[in-house]
Amino acid sequence: MSNHLKRLTTPDSWRIARKANTFVTKTAPGPHTAHAMPIAVWLRDHMGTARTMKEVKKILTDRAVMVNGKICTNPKLGIGVFDIISIPKTDKHYRILLDKKGNFVSIAISPEAAQTRLCKIRNKTVIPGGKVQLNLLYGANVLADQQYKPKDSIVLSLGKDDHFTIVDHFPFAVGNMAMVIGGRHSGKVGRLTEIREVPGSTPNRVVLEGENGEQFDTIEGYVFMVGREKPAVSEWGIEQ
């Protein structure tokens, strides 16, 4: 299988020059299932930290980049929405978000903010011993109590040795704040005002109200809870 794909076929959300070269690094299979961007593309094309793929590999081999609290050495590792990227040697930290056109953007954040990550609960299971395990949208699992439900969001501290601690919780409920991470409303933040259950296999829909009173709807799977009375993402540098 090829390790590259043609630039002309890359997702629009990557925002890279289509005619600079014929090929670009392909994303490796991983926790992000749609439009994940390789860390190599982020370092070279987005941030300008490296000029060539050789320089990208040297940076990663030197263990100079961390993704969600872990050292990254694979140039094909896919990064996506709400991932945390840190470059400890320069004390630079970034959170990956979407702008209002659905494109990836890198928001500079403080070292303190880089110690936590927002995650969506995909489902939960009861494991041997009666403990509840939360299965998160982007691959990680964490033990918790019964108060957390699928489609809620939790804020995890990025501890060492895969030890995660839940430090905040945003339920999937009317009145709370949500961000849209897919479809034509990507990047919009609003208050969840209605959950419409649709019979059959068609996805449920939700209605949100933006800061200016504009109402819009999207499918349930595109909604990511980001706060209660106010959107916590505004504290992380996103522009409304």
Q: What is the gist of this entry?
A:
It contains two helices and 19 strands.
Structure description:
- With 240 residues, the protein is mainly β.
- It is built from two helices and 19 strands.
- Strand 17 and strand 18 (215-219) form a beta hairpin.
- The longest helix is centred in the N-terminal third of the chain and has 9 residues, at 53-61.
- The chain is globular, with a radius of gyration of 18 Å.
- Residues 234-240 have low confidence and may be disordered.
Mean pLDDT over the full residue set: 84
Order of strands in the sheet with the most strands? 5-4-7-8-9
Helix content: under 10%
Low-confidence stretches: 234-240
Strand content: 35-45%
* Class inferred from helices and paired strands: mainly beta
Distance between the termini: 42 Å
Q: How many DSSP E strands?
A: 19
Rg, alpha carbons: 18 Å
The geometry reads as globular
Taking the sheet with the most strands, its summary is: 5 strands, antiparallel
Specify the number of helices. 2
**Secondary-structure element pattern, one letter each:** EEEHHEEEEEEEEEEEEEEEE
